[in-house]
Amino acid sequence: MPNRRALVAGLAAGLALAAAPFAAFAQEKLPVVASFSVLADFVKQVGGDRVGVTTLVGPDGDAHVYSPTPADAKALAAAKLVVVNGLHFEGWLPRLVKSSGTKAPLAEATKGITPLEADDDHEDHGKAGHGHAHAHGHDDPHAWQSIANAKVYVANIRDALSAADPAGKAAYEANAAAYLAQLDALEGEVKAAVARIPAERRKAITTHDAFGYFVKAYGIDFIAPQGVSTEAEASAKDVARIIRQVKTQKIPAVFLENVTNPRLVEQIARESGAKVGGKLYSDALSDTGGPAGTYIRMMKHNISEIEKALAAGPA
Ligand code: ZN
């Protein structure tokens, strides 16, 4: 009796729907919000086709100074999981979460990572009178720039996805294991590239202090006129100090960043005689067609630009 069979099948589907609302239909994906593009890529790598990711701060976007939109609030309200960096990277997020009314769990991808202190030997930008108005912690949020940390991000995301969608646990674990192996290979490539750069040339300039974890993990020294956030402008004094430093320490190159205005480092290059290396992707991926459409492509692109600019001596 086909009708009866259809009824039973319908009932079974209904039960499955009640038990695991997001796994019942292949086309129904777990709605996940990621605060910025690097996290969105990790969620896609681990979530595979079980998840649908909405990214708040998209390709080439600056998450330090983002202004959320009504669409962001809507995405949060519909989400079953929200993945954020933490370490005060997304200062605009708590208000957005509150106004969206979302009930979704918030997973901090940096959970378990030992944060680096922000290197604040920068001038206080004349803000001394404001006391601790900017006292939102002095942790450096750019932890993803170390691949060892990226592996912690991926493990946290795997566990958060498994908690939000237990039916997908095996898939998330398999995807994460495969991806973690790719990250191991990536780390080997980055270290090999650094080893090819003469030790005395392992130093460079970027606009903002986004590479502290990279410096610590791989031994390329990055100096920046701007602090760990892009919120505060670099002072003329900081810029002058860096120009002197480039000259006295013979720093070979300055790098542009995808999330900051190129003018500052171009000025430093002009006034110091350092060459402009390529563009590094610091706080955001490129769009998928660009050179840094995924985290792995971003790290490969960055180290390749760094090696090109630093490995060869002056012509
Ligand atoms: Zn940054």
Q: How would you describe this structure to a colleague?
A:
With 315 residues, the protein is of the alpha/beta class. The longest helix has 27 residues, at 169-195. It has 10 helices and 8 strands. It has 2 domains: 25-179, Nitrogenase molybdenum iron protein domain (Rossmann fold); 195-310, Nitrogenase molybdenum iron protein domain (Rossmann fold, 3-Layer(aba) Sandwich). α5 (147-164) packs antiparallel against α6 (169-195) and α6 packs parallel to α10 (295-311). It is globular. It has a 4-stranded parallel beta sheet with strand order 2-1-3-4, sandwiched between helices. 44% of the residues lie in helices and 12% in strands. Residues 10-19 and 122-136 have low confidence and may be disordered. The termini are far apart. Residues 64, 142, 208, 210, 230, 282-283 line the site of zinc ion. The site of zinc ion has 7 residues, from loops.
Summarize the structure.
The protein is an alpha/beta fold and 315 residues long. Helices cover 44% and strands 12% of the residues.
Write the SSE topology.
Elements: H1 2-19, E1 30-36, H2 37-47, E2 51-57, H3 70-78, E3 81-84, H4 93-100, E4 106-108, H5 147-164, H6 169-195, E5 203-205, H7 212-218, E6 221-223, H8 236-248, E7 253-257, H9 263-272, E8 275-280, H10 295-311
Bound molecules: zinc ion (ZN).
H/E series, N to C?
HEHEHEHEHHEHEHEHEH
Low-confidence stretches: 10-19, 122-136
**Percent range of helical residues:** 40-55%
Number of domains: 2
Strand content: 5-15%
Question: What is the CATH topology descriptor of the largest domain?
Answer: Rossmann fold
The 3D shape can be described as: globular
Mean pLDDT: 89
Name given to the CATH architecture of the largest domain: 3-Layer(aba) Sandwich
The unique ligands bound to this protein are: zinc ion
State the name of the first-level CATH class of the largest domain. Answer: Alpha Beta
